[in-house]
Automatic annotation (TrEMBL):
Top-level lineage group: Bacteria
InterPro entries the record matches: TPR-like_helical_dom_sf
Gene3D superfamilies reported in the protein's UniProt record: Tetratricopeptide repeat domain
Protein name per its UniProtKB record: Tetratricopeptide repeat protein
Pfam families: TPR_19
Database matches in SUPFAM superfamilies: TPR-like
């Protein structure tokens, strides 16, 4: 198997709106290249976009463990936890990502989760 060609195909599937197809192509690649962060990140995003949140979380935690300064991995991990309704777990990752990189969508995610937690605490 040509891993680079399969990765390119998976990226095409992902960009074309087929995260399930992308994840099927990426799973054997990550088995062959378990330390490849680019493959792991795309696989995590494919899982996130196809609502396979537990699988996404597993790969995102591996990325964060490998490189704690990866703001994007923290952001997507926070978004994954948010999407799973685990707001208290999501907030530290979202805040860390927003502190590391000034991105409007990072700031918006922090505000959204803080707002939800504020409403939740008031109820």
């Amino acid at each position: 198997m040509d891993l680079l060609e399969e990765y390119r195909r998976a990226n095409f599937f992902f960009e074309s709106g087929d995260p399930l197809g992308a994840s099927r192509l990426l799973e054997p690649i990550i088995e062959a290249e378990p330390h490849n962060s680019a493959v792991r990140q795309l696989l995590a995003r494919a899982y996130f976009n196809s609502a396979q949140l537990n699988a996404a979380e597993t790969h995102l935690r591996a990325l964060v463990d490998h490189d704690p300064s990866d703001h994007y991995a923290h952001h997507v991990l926070g978004r994954t936890l948010e999407r799973a309704g685990r707001f208290r777990e999501a907030l530290p990752h979202l805040r860390l990502a927003a502190a590391m990189k000034q991105q409007p969508d990072y700031q918006e995610a922090v505000r959204r989760v803080e707002t939800w937690l504020g409403k939740s605490a008031a109820e």
